[in-house]
């Protein structure tokens, strides 16, 4: 296995997953933030996430082109054009590029009633491109498998992104009014719960599609990476349950320990979810049994 296919592709795919999660996290948390300072911080995070999406997309394209053509550095420009014009992978890169342009326009500093709609459309388009460059595309771009995997990508990034962005926003939330702290905490908890249900449902479909006909799935690295991902998801779900049923109630009663405990568990959950996104990137570039 070449370096590009074995490590560079999953590395940059992981970067794409994390940047997309940050952008989706901003989108789903906007309604739970009422202070002007937090809104400004969210806008800055959104712009930075979109910049990283563009950098990650370019790097992912280069790694994919090298993996598919085994081109040298000198041959890379020709290989890039070949991949962009003659492959399904290249077609999805074009879709992702259009979605990225929409995201960058929507995060520019201008007032427009369509900015939010443009941002959401760009996120869905980018998630669709990510889903269609994975194993789901084996059944065709316009397939039910790609649709389900797009929902899986959006749900996973909404969960990871909402948790991660909330950690960034709450570094000073001991000074926030109780109502603002409670509103954000409840929103994150609800988003994570709904996202977990979608992740599990769509993930079961994906597992059945990729491994349902394998005679010996454990003979492949794919199955073991999948098992590690499932374990990480289980840990993250347990941390989220701890926050929802223990620390959230104490936070609502304006206990300092409640706010500190909620954020600490949220921080650990965010780290675990980053591992989930990294494992998902490796899965997407590993052949199943």
Q: How would you summarize what this structure contains?
A:
With 289 residues, the protein is mostly helical. It has a single domain, classed as Formate dehydrogenase/DMSO reductase fold (Up-down Bundle), CATH 1.20.1630. Helices cover 79% and strands 0% of the residues.
- Domain module tally: 1
Count of DSSP E strands? 0
Q: Find the structural class using helix and strand composition.
A: mainly alpha
Strand content: under 5%
Q: What gross morphology would you assign?
A: globular
Order of secondary-structure elements: HHHHHHHHH
CATH class: Mainly Alpha
Q: Stretches where pLDDT falls below 50 for ≥5 residues? A: none
> What's the total helix number?
9
Please give the share of residues in helix. Answer: over 70%
The CATH topology corresponds to Formate dehydrogenase/DMSO reductase fold
CATH architecture: Up-down Bundle
Main beta sheet strand tally, sense and closure: none
Output mean pLDDT: 88
First-residue to last-residue Cα separation: 16 Å
Radius of gyration of CA atoms, rounded to a whole number: 20 Å
Topology (elements, then pairings):
Layout: H1 3-29, H2 36-69, H3 76-86, H4 88-106, H5 115-131, H6 144-169, H7 178-211, H8 221-252, H9 256-284
């Amino acid at each position: 296995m070449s370096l590009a296919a074995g490590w560079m592709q999953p590395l940059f795919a992981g970067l794409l997953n994390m940047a997309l999660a940050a952008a989706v996290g901003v989108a789903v948390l906007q309604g739970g933030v009422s202070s002007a300072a937090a809104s400004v911080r969210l806008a800055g995070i959104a712009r930075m996430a979109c910049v990283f999406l563009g950098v990650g997309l370019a790097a992912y394209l280069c790694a994919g082109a090298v993996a598919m053509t085994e081109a040298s550095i000198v041959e890379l420009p020709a290989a890039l054009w070949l991949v962009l014009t003659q492959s399904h992978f290249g077609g999805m890169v074009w879709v992702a590029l259009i979605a990225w342009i929409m995201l960058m326009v929507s995060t520019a500093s201008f007032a427009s009633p369509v900015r939010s709609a443009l941002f959401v459309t760009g996120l869905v388009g980018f998630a669709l491109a990510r889903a269609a460059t994975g194993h789901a595309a084996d059944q065709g771009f316009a397939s039910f498998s790609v649709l389900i995997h797009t929902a899986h990508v959006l749900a996973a990034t909404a969960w990871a992104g909402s948790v991660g962005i909330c950690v960034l926003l709450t570094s000073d939330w001991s000074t926030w009014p109780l109502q603002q702290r409670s509103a954000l905490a409840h929103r994150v908890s609800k988003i994570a719960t709904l996202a977990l249900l979608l992740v599990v449902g769509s993930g079961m479909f994906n597992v059945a599609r990729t491994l349902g006909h394998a005679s010996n799935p454990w003979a492949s690295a794919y199955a073991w990476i999948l098992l590690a991902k499932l374990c990480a998801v289980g840990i993250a779900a347990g941390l989220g349950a701890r926050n929802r049923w223990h620390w959230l109630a104490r936070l609502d009663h304006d206990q300092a320990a409640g706010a500190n405990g909620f954020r600490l568990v949220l921080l650990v959950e965010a780290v675990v979810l980053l591992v989930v996104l990294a494992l998902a990137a490796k899965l997407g570039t590993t052949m199943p049994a």
